[in-house]
Amino acid sequence: MDNRKTDLVRRDIIVGSKRLSNYFWSIVLLLGGIGFLLSGFSSYFKINFLPFANPTDLVFIPQGIVMTFYGVVAISLSLYIGLTILWDVGGGYNEFNKVDELIRIARNGFPGKNRQILLVYPLNNIKSIKLSIQDGINPKRVIYLCTKDQRQIPLTQVEQPRSLLELETQASELAKFLEVNLEGI
Q: Under CATH, to which class is 2-16+89-183 assigned?
């Protein structure tokens, strides 16, 4: 997370779908999907479209049709991930402004009327910063902004869980900057 801060304004940049892992999976799925699709076409037309294999020996029903199906699904998933990267879904910023006495949380969504998500809260409506740590098979480490009306707004980006020290440091700095309590440690 890229942090830009002064004494009165703190702005944390949130990385959305433009992560290296998404680029990797989009490319892998596209290449694999093309391979499966060409295998299915080769078994149907009995012409070898793949230079490194000979799928013309496959019987179209059921093997060729299954290969074609897998190819279409993989290419579709690749396009979906590619579009989320292009639209930067989940990307945005958290701005804590003591001058305007406002907190702005902005995120990009999918195209449509609610493409830009902007949450604005007055500083005096903030109760605390909460650190939530859940370990196990699907670990989850999140910093929440807790409001006086019992809302918990996540502030961290979706990614591999960061170290506890880094997360605690970020949460304590934010709580100190906003002059509110820190919960969950």
A: mainly beta
